């Protein structure tokens, strides 16, 4: 069976984690081999870069370069080999997060992000780029997300940002969806956890990847 690449996106507090885990179990129950991973991160080098990006103050360009460096290593060492084996790759965030956080949130030039994307995600031989086959976008009002995050844990650099930052990030996700609507499944993350799960499951079933 060909590999399947699914990414999960949304602002901090949108509640994607439990559903990613649930989907991994659903795929395994169907006999599929699952690679569960995240960005920034997923390889020893990329996890080191994650620690820097999430904790050290830096300008938006440095942040963008580090997340793309992490992504390059992640694609080469983990994602591409897993897809070649026929795995289902479930990735907690991918490049849409860079456009949303570094681009829209921090105001870094999207044209440069597009250029980095075209270098880092270039597939050999063809002129195609590696993109997720499906992006499950947990869309949630930043005010609700802030309530959910409040007191949950010690916030990292991004989680500590004010609600206005997350409004820009949410706009960034909406723009990415508008540019490539077929790739995205927008989930209303304000619903109950069970309703969100049903929508996530339907999005994957609609692609024919799960019975
Ligand atoms: P997150 O995915 O929310 O993980 P956790 O649930 O462990 O906190 O954290 C990753 C953070 O990194 C999140 O705030 C978004 C940010 N990020 C970027 O700013 N740019 C990127 O390209 C990626 C992938 C993530």
Folded structure, characterized:
It contains eight helices and five strands; from the N terminus they run E-H-E-H-H-E-H-H-E-H-H-E-H. It is α/β, with parallel strands linked by helices. It has a single domain, classed as Rossmann fold, CATH 3.40.50.300. The chain has a five-stranded parallel sheet with strand order 2-3-1-4-5, sandwiched between helices. The radius of gyration is 16 Å and the shape is globular. The protein binds thymidine-5'-diphosphate. The site of thymidine-5'-diphosphate (TYD) has 13 residues, from helix 4. Thymidine-5'-diphosphate binds next to helix 4.
Integer count of domains: 1
Q: Give the full name of the CATH homologous superfamily.
A: P-loop containing nucleotide triphosphate hydrolases
Sequence of strands across the biggest β-sheet = 2-3-1-4-5
- CATH topology, which one? Rossmann fold
Structural class by secondary-structure content? alpha/beta
Provide the succession of SSEs. EHEHHEHHEHHEH
> How much strand?
5-15%
Task: Write a concise keyword list for the protein shown above.
53% helix, 5-stranded parallel beta sheet, 211 residues, alpha/beta, binds thymidine-5'-diphosphate
Task: Give a brief outline of the structure.
This protein is α/β, with parallel strands linked by helices and 211 residues long. It has helices at 17-29, 44-55, 60-85, 95-105, 110-120, 142-149, 163-179, 193-205, and strands at residues 4-9, 34-38, 88-92, 134-139, 184-188. Helix content is 53%, strand content 13%.
